[in-house]
Automatic annotation (TrEMBL):
It comes from Thamnophis sirtalis. ANK repeats lie at residues 98-130. This is Ankyrin repeat domain-containing protein 45. Coiled coil: none annotated. Residues 1-23 are annotated as: Disordered.
């Protein structure tokens, strides 16, 4: 299903719809649409190629909505091209003037493999549009069920990773700890984080609920420790027990 067939605002149709041909010929865009990796490499790396000196201009060229060639590449699912452009330092977190990202675009067009590629390349899964919608919500609205399911999975995984990073940064920061934790608290925290990192590394084909459960387990371990950190210095913390 094409996004333009879905009932939505004309503004969103413009952001997620096909791009018009650029006023001037863009050889980089043409090579990207064809999936011509040899042409792309030549333009980027061959100093004698007539288009080499203009490569940054071609990359930065945007339409009136702020979309560069990557948006069209995502619409048509040219994953190898996206990976190649990322290797050359192209910004995969670019947005339109209304906040639509490459993830939003791929989600609307049902390009599941493109979504996987973008997530592997650390595209921002939390980015929202001017409507406050993330890529998963766009996928749901355009009835791209597989894309929405994958983005649920990817977000749950990223939430777990972010929580681990938050704990590690807090526990190792003397200004945040301020003498409120003993050695055992710190050891417990860091061991719990390492256990979850090992789980992420070694678990084959975890599902969305697995990530949610692992994060909840870590939250349960950290609750009394975070309670200590939240208490004023010199005051005994009160740890609430879950019922």
């Amino acid at each position: 299903m094409e996004p333009l067939e879905e009932t939505a605002s004309s503004n969103e149709h413009e952001d997620l719809g096909p791009q018009e041909e650029p006023a001037q010929f863009n050889p980089l865009l043409m090579a990207a649409l064809r999936g011509d990796m040899e042409d792309l490499q030549q333009i980027f790396e061959d100093s004698e190629d007539p288009d080499h000196e203009k490569v940054n201009k071609f990359l930065m060229e945007k339409d009136i909505l702020g979309r560069n060639l990557l948006f069209t590449t995502c619409m048509v699912g040219q994953n190898d091209v996206i990976q190649s452009l990322a290797k050359y330092g192209v910004d995969l977190k670019d947005k339109t003037v209304r906040g639509y990202t490459l993830l939003h675009c791929a989600a609307a067009w049902g390009q599941l493999n493109t979504l996987k590629t973008l997530i592997e390349l650390e595209a921002d899964i939390y980015a929202t549009t001017f409507r406050g919608e993330n890529a998963r919500e766009i996928a749901n609205r355009y009835k791209q069920a597989e894309c929405a399911e994958f983005l649920d999975w990817a977000e749950a995984k990223q939430n777990l990773r972010n929580f681990i990073s938050q704990i590690q940064a807090t526990i190792t920061d003397p200004e945040k700890v301020q003498g409120k934790l003993n050695k055992e608290d710190k050891t417990t925290s860091l061991k719990a984080c390492q256990a979850k990192l090992d789980w992420l590394e070694n678990t084959k084909e975890p599902n969305t609920q697995d990530f949610i459960d692992q994060k909840q387990q870590l939250e349960d371990i950290m609750l009394p420790i975070f309670t200590k950190l939240a208490a004023p210095r010199g005051q005994d913390p009160v740890v609430s027990k879950k019922t």
